[in-house]
Amino acid sequence: MKTYWVETYGCQMNLSDSELMEGILAADGYTRVSAAEEADVILVNTCAVRQHAEQRVLGRVAELVRVKRQRPGTLIGVCGCMAQRLGAKLIERAEYVDMVIGPDAYRSLPQLIERAECNGGAVVEIELNPAENYEGLELRRHSPVSAWIPVQRGCNYGCTFCIVPHTRGPEKNREPLAILQEITGLAQQGITEFTLLGQTVNSYAYDGWDFPSLLRAVGRLPGVRRVRFTSPHPKDLTRKLVEAMAEEEAICPHLHLPVQSGSNRVLKRMARRYTREEYLAKVDTLRQRIPHIALTTDIIVGFPGEDESDFEATLDLLRTVRYDDAFTFRYSPREGTPATRMKEDWFVPEHVAQGRLERLIATVREIAAEKNLAQVGRTAEVLIEKRARRGNLLQARTDTNKVVLIPGPDEWIGRYLKVALTGTSGATFTGFPIET
Ligand code: SF4
After folding, report:
1. If we measure between CA atoms, which residue out of 168, 160, 191, 148 comes closest to residue 346?
2. Residue 62 and residue 29 share a domain
3. 81 CB less than 6 Å from ligand 1?
4. Total domains in the fold of the chain
5. Are residues 237 and 273 both part of a single domain?
6. Substitution site in 162, 270, 331 for ligand 1 pocket (most atoms within 8 Å of beta carbon)
């Protein structure tokens, strides 16, 4: 019996790709084991968006050498965006890696493993394939409650800080009927919550279908109770999409809308293709049509050329929008991206960027805590996802994407319950079922 172990770093797209790789291996007769130490094949699915993430992965891969020593013959594969970015250079930095597999090469995973077994040397497969959408392959999903549905791969935008267009290639969209068929099958198995995934998911277009029409069609499928999507690009947040969100009951009132900066100068240098004013106008439209919508975002500080007034503009935008939460990052130069070629004296010293990041995080947390505190005492419908890691509680989620921890038995997993929100730690809630 052949065995595998997959570790995942990075975004939801990577988590979904890992499910895809697991599906491909399972179809080839592999069994999943519960620890890397027991596996014949170890795959590490990686992210290249920040230097820090890459270093973490390299550290982890170095640790895995121990497994190879204990179990000679174990193969280590590095997959995903970092594999694509570094290619054969990865082998120079980590000679114990047996396979380097880019995001478009997963279909041939069994053959690549075979080649690595026979080879003696490392196998590198990083060709980008504009036709590869992984149609017809079954993912091995772990949640009986929610499913990620990739509807798009790659990206046609060229934000100057971002490595993704290099590692995943141009945008390619899946056939809508295949998407609807996949979701129908999963809904028949009892899954009720679906998250449509794409790098700029709302730029989706296929044969006359646009993203709002896909979203409406998904929301109307029998058995589908909640639909989410991530990540939309603000430029493609059209009136039509807002209307679909407002009108379709199944579409959750939560949007993760990456803004990156509140300064027009910085947005222009980032090539984000919208201004602060345009972004804020879209937020207004969303809130007019969906008043209880929860908004989250991504923000980068310390981008080349960002001065104190630009940073103040970002803080001001935060206070204007009052996000429910935000992922905050210090700019990380990625080799090959246009931002790395900007004027040398534009680069923000590390201690300045770090100081801004800390102020940004404090502001995000303060607003999020205020907003969450205002929810305490209210009731909400939650979907019970799984047993929480700590405290013998169940982890549940509201339609606005807030995590709620409640007491209850495992049999409740997969059910929708009304809960009273009894407290908040600032980020997550505690709750109590008021109707079972
Ligand atoms: S839209 Fe910009 S940030 Fe998002 S994946 Fe594409 S290039 Fe990167």
Report:
1. 160
2. yes
3. no
4. 3
5. yes
6. 162
> To test ligand 1's pocket by mutation, which of 12, 155, 279 has the most ligand atoms within 8 angstroms of CB?
155
Q: Does pLDDT of 270 surpass 70?
A: yes
* Ligand 1 atom nearest to 272, measured from its CA: 2
For residue 436, the model assigns a pLDDT of 65
Per-residue DSSP letter, 260:
B
Model confidence at 131: pLDDT above 70: yes
Q: Is the Cβ atom of 339 under 6 angstroms away from ligand 1?
A: no
CATH number at residue 389: 2.40.50.140
Q: Are residues 408 and 277 in the same domain?
A: no
CB 198 within 8 A of CB 151: yes
For residue 320, give the CATH number of its domain.
3.80.30.20
Tell me the best of 85, 152, 157 to mutate to test the pocket of ligand 1, counting ligand atoms within 8 Å of each CB and taking the most.
157
Average pLDDT over all residues of the chain: 96
**Which pLDDT does position 391 carry in this prediction?**
78
Region 277-281 average pLDDT: 98
Half-sphere exposure of 25 (CA within 13 A, CB side): 26
Do both 50 and 183 map to the same domain?
A: no
CB 155 near ligand 1, within 6 Å: yes
Answer yes or no: are the C-beta atoms of 43 and 5 closer than 8 Å: yes
Average pLDDT over residues 73-78: 95
Q: Are 81 and 48 in contact (CB under 8 A)?
A: yes
Structural domain span for residue 299: 146-373
Indicate whether residue 159 lines ligand 1 (CB < 6 A): yes
- Nearest atom within ligand 1 for CA of residue 168: 5
Q: Which residues sit opposite 146 in a β-bridge?
A: 193
Residue 236 and residue 211 in contact, taking contact as beta carbons nearer than 8 Å: yes
